[in-house]
Design a protein that fits this description.
The structure is a single chain. The protein is mainly alpha-helical. Among the domains are: 21-100, no CATH class; 112-162. It has helices at residues 2-19, 24-43, 54-64, 69-74, 81-100, 112-124, 130-140, 146-155, 169-177. Helix 2 (24-43) packs antiparallel against helix 3 (54-64) and helix 7 crosses helix 8 (146-155). The longest helix is centred in the N-terminal third of the chain and has 20 residues, at 24-43. 9% of the residues are buried. Residues 180-190 have a biased composition (Pro residues). This is Integrase.
């Protein structure tokens, strides 16, 4: 019993020497981390090893990530210091992923000015289809997909591919394409 008491007094004196160069913040973080580990172990007395819940990992990572690695290595942790740092990296990565996730799923809405321009072109040029409107928008420098023009016209109740009543290029080129009388040769018959 006396030998055990001497051993505990020497080890506690050495532990006190280790704590002297640490700041108060580091000491508080260590105390809180050790208390939390004790809570984890008390919860899992009947298990074969300590299992950390996601909340436990987040708590320990938040407490210990600011401590220098050499201080982390000297702590009495149930896991390696690299594991705590990995937990912190995972915590930051999941937070960044959650923040940078778009608010709405899917393709962003078309700008109102583009929508109005498409509808104006369709109203002023009733024989144009969605492909012609798309081409004119590209000439104007407006980058929008042909399928988006189709969808805008559909939603407005305008036929995206109207039947043309005006003459088409086939009708206007037809007189030039008709076969004429066979050519006459300038050679005399034999």
């Amino acid at each position: 019993m006396l030998l055990r008491l001497a051993y505990l007094s020497v080890t506690n004196a050495l532990a006190l020497l280790r704590l002297l160069p640490m700041s108060d913040r580091d000491k508080d973080a260590e105390i809180l981390a050790l208390r939390h580990q004790i809570t984890i172990l008390q919860r899992q007395l009947h298990g074969d090893r300590a299992r950390f819940a996601p909340a436990d990992r987040a708590w320990l990572a938040a407490l210990l990530h600011r401590l220098p690695r050499d201080v982390l290595r000297n702590l009495r942790l149930l896991v390696r210091p690299e594991t705590v740092l990995r937990w912190h990296r995972d915590l930051i990565a999941s937070r960044h992923a959650r923040i940078s996730r778009p608010r709405r799923a899917g393709r962003p809405r078309t700008v109102r000015s583009i929508r109005r321009l498409v509808l104006r072109l369709a109203r002023e040029n009733t024989t144009w289809g969605y492909r012609r409107i798309h081409g004119e928008l590209l000439v104007l420098g407006v980058k929008v997909a042909a399928s988006t023009v189709w969808k805008i016209l559909q939603q407005a109740g305008i036929d995206p591919a109207p039947q043309r009543t005006a003459t088409t290029w086939q009708h206007s080129c037809a007189p030039r394409l008709r076969p004429s009388s066979p050519p006459t040769s300038s050679k005399p018959p034999r």
